Amino acid sequence: MIPRPPDPRGRKLIGATLALAIATVGGFEGVRYVAYRDSVGIPTICYGETRGVHMGDRASAAECKRQFTAALGDFASRMNACLVDPASIPDKSYVAFLSLAYNIGTGAFCRSSVARDVNSGRLAKACDDVLLYDHAGGRRLAGLTIRRRKERALCMLGIGG
Length: 161
Description:
Number of helices: 7
Distance between the termini: 21 Å
Oligomer: single chain
Number of strands: 4
């Protein structure tokens, strides 16, 4: 399959897709208003935010919601930049990929087999590849395995599988 050129308008995270992303990613991440160390020791706050976080940081519910919505938009934009035609991805599959990118980072997502398969038009394979990313700190984490299975299921729903 010949990749199509990128859609110059990109894909905006709005409406029902934004609501699904907030519910999906927010549900996986959970929310904490005081900085804590995640499973591999990285200072984290709110809905899994690690950028610029220091132990002792605190945030209100409103700050966390505002930061999370902005972060989802930022991650979506950066994920879109490495996808050939993000607008063609069904909403549920797109949200599953965004959830993965939010969790592993967009750099890792853009280098992943998931992104390669999406860009080659192999969405079902990309959905299956999501299952490969259940390790952190060099070890498989049961919580990530559960999350990846749910992301894959959502992804497959998007393509009718």
